Amino acid sequence: MPRKITATAASMRKSREELERDLKVFLDSGQRITSVKAGETGQDEKNRSKHIVITRKVQPPRKKKPKL
Predict the structure, then answer these.
(1) 19-33: pLDDT as tens digits
(2) What CA–CA distances, in Å, run from 64 to 57, 61, 67?
(3) Model's pTM, two decimal places?
(4) pLDDT digits over 35-58, tens only?
(5) In three state form, how does the secondary structure of 22-46 look?
């Protein structure tokens, strides 16, 4: 089984610094961060839920139930 890839402290620090730099550029350009209430996101204009799948585990085939 392959080893699980984990983030190192250096890579996490680099990501954090990049995020802080990007956020500073965003705010310095005059943009603002808008807060939204819980439940307001994840819906499209027709009030349907948007399901985002990042990864999907392979499911084993289902066993058929015997007919009685």
Answers:
(1) 999 999 999 999 998
(2) 21, 9, 9
(3) 0.45
(4) 877 766 656 666 666 666 666 777
(5) HHHHHHHCCCCCCCCCCCCCCECCC
